Amino acid sequence: MRRRAKTRNPLKTTTTPAKQQRRTNQRGIRKQASRTNGKDQCLPSFTYTSSPCSTEWIRTDARRTAIGLDLDLESLEWCLENNLSKIGADGYSRMLLFHGNVLQPMESRLVKQKFTNLVHGLDLNSNNGTGSNSCKQMGLADSKCLANLTMSEADFPARDIICAFNYSCCCLHSRKDLVLYFRHVRSVLSERGGIFVMDVYGGISSERKLRLQRKFPSFTYFWEQDEFDIISRQTRISLHFQGGKKQMMRYAFTYHWRLWSIPEIKDCLEEAGFKWVHVWMREMPNTQSGGNAKEYNANRDVKYEESQHFNQGDAWNAYVVGVANV
Ligand SMILES: C[S@@+](CC[C@H](N)C(=O)[O-])C[C@H]1O[C@@H](n2cnc3c(N)ncnc32)[C@H](O)[C@@H]1O
């Protein structure tokens, strides 16, 4: 994936002996996790930079915590800087972002919350104690303790919801990997009704070359779809943005995706141990239409419905929900 956003220079990390660091880390994590007594947890695996889902999750209830995991460090840092900063210090202490691969989640590493420094003018890393005091005042002591933590060193309680949105599962191209990812998800979900939610799209328009645009008052968004290979079911999606009259940000994001069918996803979830799989679907605006926001909004009220059957059409979107247990 290519992104244009710039990152700033990383700040120094703290230097406590590894063993002591790990113990402190685990205490810190448990303290954060215990705020919810293991309830209302959200681990938006595959969470990404903008991840509005997890930010909104913690913003709307002070007891909630969230954990994100993504392969793209730049995206995670962008999230910390741009989304979490809006929630403030409390948000930082309730969301942990890990950098790594969902296929080896335990090896992923906590992204250092360096942006707290920038946002609050604090020096979390200073060895003269000032930073540490400031952290405590702000309730941020944990963020210092957690630097360099790997997921395997953390002792998280079972999660209630795990989300993989914006078609993230399409980044996995083999069935073996999809099942492996689902197994990891299943293994950390709460036995008391923990759910996994992912989205997927399809329709006749998704299996051919396509260029869509959506106009908003201040910018236009372009979805560019390459030819669709029916043997591998893969395509390349590029997203471009135009702000104002001239500023064009081409290839802001590029993804190489395999379009999974709903029965394939369902089979893989069941193979990974999910007890129940539900599918919620809706038709999307026709891709032949002009693509202005007015036309799009006219279609906004079409609701998702739980479906057993759905006739093929130009474009549809689905949420597939796996229930760990009941
Ligand atoms: C289409 S984006 C969606 C991002 C995010 N879920 C959201 O809602 O904004 C897909 C994301 O999946 C990440 N990704 C792809 N393969 C991955 C893997 N094996 N492990 C972890 N993250 C991965 C990419 O870095 C990218 O940020």
UniProtKB/TrEMBL annotation:
<dbReference type="InterPro" id="IPR029063">
    <property type="entry name" value="SAM-dependent_MTases_sf"/>
</dbReference>
<protein>
    <recommendedName>
        <fullName>S-adenosyl-L-methionine-dependent methyltransferase superfamily protein</fullName>
    </recommendedName>
</protein>
<feature type="compositionally biased region" description="Basic residues">
    <location>
        <begin position="20"/>
        <end position="33"/>
    </location>
</feature>
<feature type="region of interest" description="Disordered">
    <location>
        <begin position="1"/>
        <end position="40"/>
    </location>
</feature>
<feature type="compositionally biased region" description="Polar residues">
    <location>
        <begin position="10"/>
        <end position="19"/>
    </location>
</feature>
